Amino acid sequence: MGQDKILRGALLLRRSVFTLLVVATLAGCDQPSVSETTRGQKQDAPQKGGKLLIAIDTDPNCIDPQQAGNNNSLNIGRQLTDSLTDQDPKTGKIVPWLASRWQISEGNRRFTFFLRDGVSFSDGTPFTAQSVKDNFAAIIKLGARASLASTYLKGLQHVETPDDHTAVVTFSQPNAQFLQATSTMSLGFFAPSTVAATAEARCQGALVGSGPFILQQFVHNQKVDLTRRTHYQWPSSLASHQGESYLEAVEYRVIPESGVRFGSLISGQLDVNSAVTPQDESLLLAKNIKLVARTNPGLVYSLFPNHATPLMASQPLRQALSLAIDRPALKPALSRYQAEATSVLAQTTPLYQDRRNLLKYDPQLAQKLLEDNGWRKGAEGIRDKNGQRLSFRISYWQTAPFIEVVQQQLKKVGIELQLEKAPISQVVARQASGTVAIDFYNLTRADPDVLRTVFDAHGRNVNRRPPEDVDALLLQSSETLDTAQRQHYVTQAADLLISEGNAIPLVELATVIATRQQVQGFHFDASSRFQLYDTWLAVKE
């Protein structure tokens, strides 16, 4: 069926479906919402076989998880590679995976991992301590291209390999975040052939991993095909079964149009829609489609002013931006599982504290700050100063209807926000140029060190600002072993980022995924991404 026919079918379904729903409430942040029609159904024994068809909304661009930073890419990369550890999504505890145990010494500087026996990459190459050393060295060599992974390894001195099953990782300073980092796919492992490949080749699919699936094909803006790896025997300790994955294959289809994703799921041409829009949630539940949802930990959707641009070098202007935004009023544009931001960190992030007192809505004070700094109301109500219009643009690729509400709120105080939705490759290129006035995105990680990853003046430095007090706090939080002390540093850093207008938090992202009833064992990890090893397809009646 052509996409035009599917879209017409989706529109008809939208018109015919009543919005009467039975909605279950999330039990905490970790449990999915389930419609009443799915409760009490008998769960069959897992079945092996079948291809899982997943719709994603954008081209993955780069599917190397050591380089990638967007959810679609990482949800693909996770299936190809394993990590030293895993993180329990319910407790946050770090548990064994490729490392059966570990020791931490020298004041959180030295990490000794004892590796499982019998692990190999899909080309038959054994996974050893040398694999850990080589992969970490490759990540450091990638530099800024490894946008997440390189920050996790900052300060790495050396990796020792006393034998094939022992890897000793030593940092130049205490590293409180590293153990959690070893649970991410960003620090997952690949065979020597991948380590030796160029960054570009890896992005396009030159990936030989240790995971339960093998990459077969990556066609830009069309699809990514994975197949089951035979003789896989080393899942995470959190897995519900042993041996090979249940699924025989997985196909990710790039379908940008939400109506096409909706219609394809309802008609049975898809099994999973990984990018459910808020307006589709009610219709999907009414059609007996399961929704699973979880708030993403880490950095919430925020605006990040660029100090290197003349506009955003002004702290009063940055503060006025935040004061002009009524965050609770964004709720109508959000998913039922999303919430307005109450800090720069999401509530599911370890050491989160509610800082909504710093995120007050005060348009009068916002206008006073602008007036005091010479910005006068001009044509169409937009302010100007010395002939310069108070206008800037943000580029984004995500489905984020709430940003249009933010645009309307800023206009009320005389600020023009121009919106440009573009392919992810273009957005990333513009952000990397350093010329845009404001960046807009979120960053998922189940550790508060995500703040250092993004804001550290000696690292990524999203604000392009000189070192300030907040950088010392971020460094101290990454080195401190004491939980209470680390909490203090994290909270102080969050307060400074907000109060000085370096982070303008907007909305907590929640990942909302729709699956057909036949999809079983689908669940989120601690970072609200998915691992398909335990997923299986029931026989369709």
Report on this structure.
- There is one protein chain.
- With 541 residues, the chain is an alpha+beta fold.
- The chain folds into three domains: 3-64 and 197-290 and 511-537, D-Maltodextrin-Binding Protein, domain 2 (3-Layer(aba) Sandwich); 85-196, Dipeptide-binding Protein, domain 1, CATH 3.90.76; 298-508, Roll (Dipeptide-binding Protein, domain 3), CATH 3.10.105.10.
- The chain contains 16 helices and 24 strands.
- The chain has helices spanning 3-16, 71-77, 129-142, 149-152, 178-181, 192-196, 199-203, 258-266, 278-286, 315-323, 363-372, 402-412, 424-433, 450-455, 469-479, 483-499; strands spanning 51-56, 85-87, 94-96, 99-105, 110-115, 156-163, 166-171, 213-219, 223-228, 249-254, 272-273, 290-295, 298-305, 339-340, 376-377, 383-385, 388-389, 391-396, 416-421, 438-444, 504-508, 510-515, 519-520, 536-537.
- The strands form seven sheets. A seven-stranded mixed β-sheet has the order 8-9-10-1-11-22-12, with helices on one face.
- Strand 6 and strand 7 form a beta hairpin.
- The two termini are 22 Å apart.
Question: In brief, what are we looking at here?
Answer:
The protein has 16 helices and 24 strands. The chain has 541 residues and is α+β, with helices and mostly antiparallel strands.
Summary keywords:
541 residues; alpha+beta; D-Maltodextrin-Binding Protein, domain 2; Dipeptide-binding Protein, domain 1; Dipeptide-binding Protein, domain 3; 3 domains; seven-stranded mixed β-sheet; globular
